[in-house]
Amino acid sequence: MARINMVQAINLALRQEMEKDRDVVLIGEDVGRDGGVFRITEGLVEKFPDRIFDTPLAESGIAGVAVGMAAYGLKPVAEIQFMGFIYACVEQIFSHASRIRSRSRGRYTCPLVIRTPYGLGIKPPELHSESTEALFCHMPGIKVVVPSSPYNAKGLLISAIRDPDPVVFLEPTRLYRLIKEEVPETEYAIPLEKARIVQEGKDITVIAWGSMLHRVLESIEGFDAEVIDLMTLSPYDEETILNSVKKTGRVVIVHEATRNCGFGAELSAFIAEEAMLHLKSPIVRVTGLDAVIPMARLEDYYAPAKEKIVKALKKVMEY
Amino acid sequence: MPETIIEKIEVKRLQILYENGNVDESLMPDLSDNDLKKMFELFILARQFDQRALKLHAEGRLGTYASILGQEASQIGSAYTLEKSDRVFPSFREMGVYITLGYPIWMLFQYWTGDERGMRTPDDLNIFPVSVPVGTHTPHAVGAAFAAKIKGHKTATAAYFGDGGSSKGDFHEGLNIAGVYKLPVIFICQNNQWAISLPREKQTAAKTIAQKAFGYGFEGIQVDGNDIFAVYKATKDALAKARAGSGPTLIECFTYRMADHTTADDASRYRSKEDVEKWKARDPLLRLKLYMERKGLWTQQYEDEVKKRVTDFVDSEIKKHEAAAMPEQKDILNFTYKELTQRQKKELETL
After folding, report:
1. Which of A24, A57, A211, B222 sits between 20 and 30 A of B207, alpha carbons compared?
2. Residues with Cβ within 8 Å of residue A303, at least 6 apart in sequence
3. Within an 8 Å CB–CB cutoff, is residue A168 touching chain B?
4. Contacts of residue A67 in chain B, CB cutoff 8 Å?
5. Which of B277, B203, B66, B335 is nearest to A106 (CA)?
6. Among all residues of chain B, which has the CA nearest to that of A48?
7. Which of chain B's residues have a Cβ under 8 Å away from the Cβ of A143?
8. Which domain holds residue B124?
């Protein structure tokens, strides 16, 4: 077992699924010879020259072509270079990918994956740091998955590729090369719609995903926190959340995205509806600011900092 | 350094069957008497379906409907040459395509009544469900053609859309990708002159829609869309080219939307009666009849017999559709994903 980073783990998942299933194909901008701007697909075109395609610079076209490929019977994995460019695909994802199964009453399906780097952390130009996962969670028919480590990135991507429905797979850029861990060479799938309890605790349930999970883990020292890594945001694992909340009675939700209609809003409404009488304190969200995501010089002030998370943990304990 | 011409394009227009029923024999495709009669009967069926749908709508027995009146030659002529294994991606004004490919008529009524089950394509057909957002299904035909090429199938794909659709970004992105990868896809634009109230000349400043293909490195051709033989020939040629690995083609069928945009529209608000009258004289069925009459294939008695047969058939299809059980409420949830989610299982209990 080798210690590898998330870029290498995703590359490994793609390679193994392409070896296993001839219907898996990759499309996107610069995914072939260049190996993708983050080098996720490095070395794959040499191995699968007939199944990796550099497309023209046309995000909606990429998504639409992936829909047609999937409906024909392939399992396309499309890369959108940055999440800020996925907005051009929203019509294809919302109006077609999510609905083909329903529209055709099951005759046609859309087993595609759209992968895209997401979130802050690499100090790029504007629209390269978006975290608008809630947008996609609002649309039925789509699954939304966010890995938080090399190990789960590999297992979740394998599940996403094998899934019979469309999956938006959001890869936290901050984590691409930050962490290395043991990732088995053998293929393994981590089920979707299943959250992971990263660490058990009895006082506070802290829910996070992607890069914020690591900030949470840096912030909980001194608290008896149960940390949940949601991994699949839509459809999410209600059962794991409820079981934990009923045990701890306190909830802190941390996400990088804007607070207004962020995914934390859904989670806190759900918890309030289902477990209000178990709560010992109001639910607290620690989120990005309600503002356009700033460029590099201000980005550290936008996202939830460790101090803000600690403050929230204290608040629910002291209530 | 002198200025030099580095690219020239020529846009052809194809017409074979004239309004007086004469044909250009040098261009006439090889169609048997049986084919001609089948085409004629499909015409009668498509028109009958269309009229009955409008009538059912007026009676409150069908939802909003988009009439195909005037565009039958574009639809039947093109679909007649498609193989059942070809993947067809229609828009919402393509009932003539569905009918030509043999789609169950009662299911089309079912769909327009507001029932998704009507778009559950029978397993032996490969026509996709109606795509409502204009022009956005163009890349799907491209993706399916890409998949066919990757898998080494001889399948071709066809996207149907209108002059309005040719303004959408997805039209351009789709055609562009199809050109780059030389994919086996044909783009069939029914230029019916109107996108609801917007006339063709406001849709694009280009002289034709066909010429847009040249910008993506492949051929576009304009055909008289009310000339079933021209549409048939252009489609047949484009399909042969696609199957031979020689890439896509854009076919602009120059036709006219004789009816309102949909049953919710009133075209008299934005276009003149004279314009509509002018196109009535170009009726695509009339000229086919004149041609068949000259060949001894059409008589009034034959037409009456066909109409009687088709009316009885459509009657029975309407009965079949109206006798079908209501869709089940659980189907609202059942086709979202392959499996119900944790949430949906609870929602199912609330129905």
Report:
1. A57
2. A120, A212, A256, A288
3. no
4. 139-140, 143
5. B335
6. B150
7. 337
8. 12-350
- Cβ of residue B110 closer than 8 Å to a chain A Cβ: no
Distance CA A255, CA B157 (A): 44
Report whether B166 contacts B189 (CB < 8 A). Answer: yes
Rounded Cα distance, A28 and A57, in Å: 8
CATH of the domain at B184: 3.40.50.970
Minimum distance, in Å, between the CA of residue A300 and any CA atom of chain B:
36
In B, which residues are within 8 Å of A56 by CB distance? 173, 176-177, 180
Do the beta carbons of residue B164 and residue B203 sit within 8 Å?
Answer: yes
A-B Cβ pairs (cutoff 8 Å, strict): 145
Residues of A in contact with B137 (CB under 8 A): 64, 96
Phi/psi for B187 (5° steps) reads -105, 115
Give pLDDT, residue B76. 98
* CATH code of the domain occupying A2-183: 3.40.50.970
The answer to whether A43 contacts chain B (CB < 8 Å) is no
Q: Categorize the per-residue pLDDT at A1 as very low, low, confident or very high, splitting at 50, 70 and 90.
A: confident
What are the residues whose beta carbons fall under 8 Å from the beta carbon of A67, sequence distance 6 or more? A92, A96, A97, A100, A110, A112, B139, B140, B143
Question: B83: Cβ–Cβ under 8 A, 6 or more apart, which residues?
Answer: B155, B156
Question: DSSP assignment of B207-262, as one string?
Answer: S-SGGGGGGGTSEEEEEETT-HHHHHHHHHHHHHHHHTT---EEEEEE----S-SS
Q: Is residue B251 part of a domain?
A: yes
Q: Is A295 exposed, middle or buried (0-12, 13-18, 19+ CB in 10 A)?
A: middle
CATH number for domain A196-318, candidates 3.40.50.920, 3.30.70.1290, 3.30.1320.10, 1.20.1260.10: 3.40.50.920
Measure in Å the smallest separation between the Cα of A221 and chain B Cα atoms: 33
Q: Does the pLDDT value for residue A123 go beyond 90?
A: no
Angle between helices B33-58 and B300-323 (to 10 degrees): 50
Identify the band that residue B167 occupies on the pLDDT scale cut at 50, 70 and 90: very high
Under an 8 A CB cutoff, do A71 and B117 touch?
A: no
Residue A128 is a catalytic residue: yes
How far apart are the CA of B23 and the nearest CA of chain A, in angstroms? 38
Residue extents of the structural domains in chain A: 2-183, 196-318
Place of tokens 């394009």: B9
Nearest CA-CA distance, residue B68 and chain A, Å = 22
Q: What is the ipTM of this complex?
A: 0.97
Residue B341 lies in a domain: yes
Supply the pLDDT for residue A104. Answer: 98
Tally of domains within chain B: 1
The answer, for B34 touching chain A at a CB cutoff of 8 Å, is no
**Rounded CA gap, B95 and B62, in Å?**
15
